[in-house]
Amino acid sequence: MIAPKQITVTIDGKRCAGAEGQTILEIARANDIYIPTLCYLKQLSPWGGCRLCIVEIVGSPKVVPACSTPATDGSEVVATSPRLRQLRRNTLELLFSERNHICPICPMNNGDCGLQHQGYVHGIETIRYPYLYPALPVDLSGPYFGLDHNRCILCTRCVRTCEEMEGVHTLDIAHRGIHNRVVVDIGASFGTSDTCTSCGACVAACPTGALFDKAAAFRGKLNTCQTVRTTCSECPVGCGLLVYTRENRIVEVFGDDEASVNRGHLCRRGRYETWAEPRSRILQPLVRRGEKLVPATWDEALGAVRNAMNNESDWQRGMLISPRITNETVSVLKALGPGYDRVGMVVGTGEAAFCRSPEFAADPMRSIEEADGIIILGAQPSRDNRVVAAKIRHSVRRQDAKLLIFHSRKSDLDVYADVCAGVVSLERAFWKRVTDTLKDVKHPVLVYGPAAMTPIGYTVLERLIGVFEKKRGGHAPQLVPLPVTTNSLALSKAGVEPLDDVAAWLGVQPLDFLHVVASDEPDGGARLLNGKHVRRLLEEIEYLVVQASYESALTELADVVLPAAVWSEKSGTITNFEGRELPLRPVLPPRGEAREDRAILEALLK
Fold first, then answer.
1. Which residues have a Cβ under 8 Å from the Cβ of 153 and sit 6 or more positions away?
2. Helix (H) or strand (E) segment spanning residue 274
3. pLDDT value at residue 303
4. Helix %, strand %, coil % for the chain, to 5?
5. How does DSSP assign 494-554, residue by residue?
6. What is the CATH T-level fold of the domain 286-348+487-575+592-605, as seen in this structure?
7. Is the pTM of this model over 0.85?
8. pLDDT tens for residues 31-60?
């Protein structure tokens, strides 16, 4: 790749180096020169609509928006002048007067609002224009966030984010002039939208209180919160999180712009389900007394477990673990191993074969972003790995990449697919269509999931390989294995046996003692009970220990329940689907008497 030509621009008397193609704003920011903005966001295409970043170019009578004007070599730019300051003040006054910006009752008040901040920067104390006081609605129908049109400045950051990052184009601008308004699905609401994924990217992009998170409203100013960078453990992608906390509670969760995996983007699970969904925590150990589970001390609970393990020497003992445990917990598992006859890891349906030969993709997000052909085989990214689904939508919508979906359930990606076959045909006409679709593809990516590890999946894979082998000058697709459960590939590589048929594992030789490490599974480990015959087999076990964060039908069956820390209370590392070892940093102290999984298992060694 040829390096861009270097240019020099003078901004407010300072000589600034840049590259050809960069905008005036980009060069200014790279050289620590402040130019105010509202509609600009680094990750989005420039729009130049708010006119707050206007600058003067010496020799031209016009002012131009710095965010969308390419810099030219040798030009001289004025970014600060009395004329520019007055024009910016005029723009801000018009914005304040057009809608109902009543700061004292806005959740973004005092430091978090971009419009309010610019008002302070430009010394606006009064508005010279008459307030219009329009009667505008508030949409609170969505599950996690609301839209208050009274506070909207029509910067389109939400619209561009929805299109360019999530790739669904739920939001747009409708009507004309003073009646302009952000709309959902051209007249729907968030609660009735067919396209909104509830990722919250629009809320993160909004510079005012127009889009706001319900759970975060009035919890505290972000600029007074503590911030911690950690990793989302809801799926194997391993997105970076920036978590804001105050008074031992989470105020808000954003994507970490510095995280190379997601570059600031999150899905519904990572941004909201981790903390904005009400879940019943287990906050102290429980021991069964007769028919009931009653609170106990840690010494009593651990003593009961040790007695059950040691007093019956002929018992068959087993342990089932969730792949959500950290890498550091594996060493403790190995130390505990001699005390158990069997140890298995509960993975998703069909995922055991996927994990037994663990493979990691090299920079898969970039590969998908640059692909001109994407094949999905036996994977459900819209359900299981939603940031990956967003990247696929982006490539299809913005770069016109071909999309082929095989052996997968219906999802919102189907509408973008050139070929979509839930049930794969082996007829010649079908594969001719596939071949014709892929004939001009030069940079293909094959995203495959657990359902690809079946006879049908292997057949499709062989056919696809044949298609690419017959192409002249064609390239074999880059493979992107996409597991369902967190950290399952790394734990399997460390020697933990993956299980997707728990009933068979339990039934091969009846167990007398079973320790289930459900960790912080959102359902408290209850997904175990979805397997046929599993509940009956668990009820037949003499002694059942469940280590979990949340109450569930599984914990109700236990003889001892050990309270585990959740994602925001954990430390250690997990390994994502790229093979990167990513940090988990504690955001809050453990609630109640909960402990980290590693600490609980270490206590059983004593």
1. 38, 50, 95, 99, 115, 207, 208, 210
2. none
3. 96
4. 30, 20, 45
5. TTPEEES-HHHHHHSS--SEEEEEEET-TTTTGGGGGSTTHHHHHHT-SEEEEEESB--HH
6. Rossmann fold (3.40.50)
7. yes
8. 999 999 999 999 999 999 999 999 999 999
